[in-house]
């Protein structure tokens, strides 16, 4: 495969997905990651998160295995597995789908702005249902010369961005948002904190405001870019950067990149 493609899972096989849907489509669940030359960081964690996000009546195991077998083993890709609702309420159907997209340009730095309006997330614990609303918020952030927007909890605590988890360093202590703050279960942040713990790094959960992050080094983490250093927070805290630290931890995250399972042939 050398171009974007989309397929629906029907009767145990994939068939092309019509690019022009006549009926309304809602995304109910999704998962995506960077696929580079057939290897992925923490694929099993993505699998667990995606299958947990499916309702009990949807069996996604066979779909997952078939989708992984469909993925290319060369090049840089950003595949997305989806559960979609197609049709009008009361007359809709659920279908599983695979979107194969070339990976965009990867970045190591990011600029943020605080989203100071209502939290757009209706289902913050599931990836998928809020993607359209989050895209609108990110577009507004980009109009303010930022790359992404930091989302706050109802009491003003840092939660995550529209596309990434946030962690910050207080000296040699790695901090992240308190798990009680609504946020997506993150594969990359989970991998980083496990690695950090294994290397003897002290970990701390915080209920921090944006202002509380002044003087820290802040990273934005996701499965596409890995670690991006927050270089600017427009209208927000003044941040620092320790040369070499992000590079070291990118290398350590890279040790978790493993080849996809071999496709089973009949």
For the record, give the distance between the C-alpha atoms at the N and C termini, rounded to a whole number: 21 Å
Silhouette? globular
In the CATH scheme, the class of the largest domain would be: Alpha Beta
Named CATH topology of the largest domain: D-amino Acid Aminotransferase, Chain A, domain 2
CATH superfamily of the largest domain: D-amino Acid Aminotransferase, subunit A, domain 2
Helix-residue proportion: 10-25%
Average pLDDT, all residues:
95
Structural class: alpha+beta
CA radius of gyration: 19 Å
Number of domains: 2
Number of strands: 17
Task: Tell me what you see in this structure.
This protein is an alpha+beta fold and 266 residues long. It folds into two domains: 5-100, D-amino Acid Aminotransferase, Chain A, domain 1 (2-Layer Sandwich); 109-254, D-amino Acid Aminotransferase, subunit A, domain 2 (D-amino Acid Aminotransferase, Chain A, domain 2), CATH 3.20.10. It is built from five helices and 17 strands. The protein has helices spanning 43-53, 61-70, 131-143, 187-198, 245-254, and strands at 5-10, 13-16, 25-32, 35-36, 39-41, 76-77, 80-86, 93-100, 109-114, 148-152, 158-161, 165-170, 173-177, 203-206, 217-222, 226-234, 257-259. The protein has an eight-stranded mixed β-sheet with strand order 11-10-9-16-15-12-13-14. The chain has a five-stranded antiparallel β-sheet with strand order 2-1-8-7-3, with helices on one face. A two-stranded antiparallel sheet has the order 4-6. Strand 13, helix 4 (187-198) and strand 14 (203-206) form a beta-alpha-beta unit. The two termini are 21 Å apart.
């Amino acid at each position: 495969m050398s171009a974007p493609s989309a397929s629906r899972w029907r009767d145990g096989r994939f068939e092309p997905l019509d690019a022009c849907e006549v009926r309304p489509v809602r995304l109910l669940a999704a998962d995506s990651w960077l696929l580079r030359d057939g290897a992925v960081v923490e694929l099993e964690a993505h699998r667990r998160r995606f299958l947990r996000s499916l309702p009990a009546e949807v069996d996604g195991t066979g779909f997952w295995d078939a989708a992984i077998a469909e993925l290319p083993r060369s090049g840089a890709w950003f595949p997305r597995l989806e559960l979609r609702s197609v049709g009008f309420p009361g007359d809709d159907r659920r279908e599983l789908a695979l979107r194969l997209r070339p990976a965009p340009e990867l970045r190591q730095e990011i600029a943020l702005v605080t989203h100071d309006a209502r939290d757009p997330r209706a289902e913050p614990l599931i990836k998928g249902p809020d993607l359209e609303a989050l895209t609108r918020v990110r577009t507004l952030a980009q109009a303010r010369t930022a790359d992404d927007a930091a989302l706050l909890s109802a009491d003003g605590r840092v939660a995550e961005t529209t596309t990434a988890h946030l962690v910050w360093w207080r000296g040699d202590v790695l901090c992240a948002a308190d798990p009680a703050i609504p946020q997506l279960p993150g594969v990359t942040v989970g991998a980083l904190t496990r690695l950090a713990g294994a290397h003897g790094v002290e970990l701390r959960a915080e209920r921090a405001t944006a202002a509380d992050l002044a003087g820290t080094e802040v990273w934005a983490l996701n499965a596409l870019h890995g670690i991006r250093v927050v270089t600017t927070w427009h209208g927000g805290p003044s941040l620092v950067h320790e040369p070499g630290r992000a590079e070291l931890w990118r290398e350590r995250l890279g040790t978790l990149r493993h080849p996809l399972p071999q496709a089973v042939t009949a």
